[in-house]
Design a protein that fits this description.
The protein is an alpha+beta fold. The strands form five sheets. Strands 1, 3, 5, 6, 9 and 10 form a six-stranded mixed beta sheet that branches. The chain has a four-stranded antiparallel beta sheet with strand order 2-4-8-7, with no helix packed on it. A four-stranded mixed beta sheet has the order 12-20-19-16. Strand 9 and strand 10 form a beta hairpin.
């Protein structure tokens, strides 16, 4: 319930943003015809008229359909749609197909979605429809976060009814389509100081992965899904590193840190000095 309460205003904002950026078209102001009689004029004055300039028009929706939809009161009936997710885990950076089953009725706005992890929205927009069999539609999304991810899917009917359902995915590392893995944003060297300030004594790793077909790099939140190994003097270790990727200076020396993400490896050299370089 808390998630739905948090996402509800966001989904409304998404609807407005979609209609304003991808769906709304300029429409000439509607000209009213001269009244044929005083009674007809009075009748029109009694019925509020919505200006086309204020009309929300979604992508793929005609002006006439938008007018018809807007003539109905807005309602929410989530039972008019169900969502089926694939069995098993969802691979990071790879398309995942969800099957939507819709109740009878004309669809006014195509499916839209919001992805969230740890109650934070990180992606959303119009869903890519890869198969359309009328009341059954298959949409495709690409998760870019590891771990539990919620997918809120919504669709709008011509009678101005909003239907929403939340699907749950568990996103795991995947070697499929993995083009590049960088343990620390591509920096080959990390320098630390034993007696420096906190920033100089310890650093977080910032791992990045790039997948085929995904336009932007995916920044991993931590290194918990990366297998880390250290090459250094075991009797006098220069660094320590925890499973989340926090590297700390222990004593002056050098170390090589290697990370393995879904079978792809990268390594960095770590140099530890007693005092920061002036």
């Amino acid at each position: 319930m808390a998630l739905r309460a948090t996402i509800r205003p966001l989904i409304c904002s998404l609807l407005l943003a979609l209609s304003a950026t991808v769906g709304q078209r300029a429409v000439p102001a509607q000209q009213s015809e001269p009244p044929s009689s005083p009674k007809a004029s009075e009748a029109r004055q009694d019925v509020p008229q919505q200006s086309d300039s204020d009309l929300l028009v979604f992508k793929g929706e005609s002006i006439d359909d938008a007018r018809e939809r807007s003539s109905h009161p807005g309602t929410e009936e989530d039972q008019r749609m169900s969502v089926k997710v694939p069995d098993g885990d969802a691979p990071l950076g790879n398309p995942v197909q969800l099957t939507l089953t819709l109740a009878p009725g004309k669809i006014s706005a195509p499916p839209a979605y919001v992805l969230s992890a740890k109650s934070v929205d990180f992606d959303g927009g119009l869903a890519k429809i890869v198969q359309d069999n009328g009341s059954t539609k298959t949409i495709e999304i690409t998760p870019s976060k590891l771990g539990p991810v919620d997918v809120l899917v919504q669709i709008v009917y011509a009678d101005n009814t909003l239907a929403r359902q939340t699907a749950h995915l568990n996103v795991v590392p995947s070697a499929t389509g993995l083009k590049k893995f960088q343990l620390n944003q591509g920096f080959p060297v990390l320098r630390l100081a034993v007696y420096g300030d906190e920033v100089e004594r310890q650093r977080w790793l910032f791992p990045v992965v790039t997948y085929q077909g995904v336009k932007l790099p995916i920044y991993l939140e931590d290194s918990s899904q990366i297998k880390l190994s250290v090459e250094q003097n075991e009797g006098n270790p220069a660094i320590s590193v925890d499973k989340n990727g926090l590297v700390k200076a222990v004593r002056e020396g050098t170390a090589t840190l290697t990370g393995d993400f879904a079978g792809v490896t990268d390594k960095i050299q770590i140099t530890v000095q007693n005092y920061p370089t002036p």
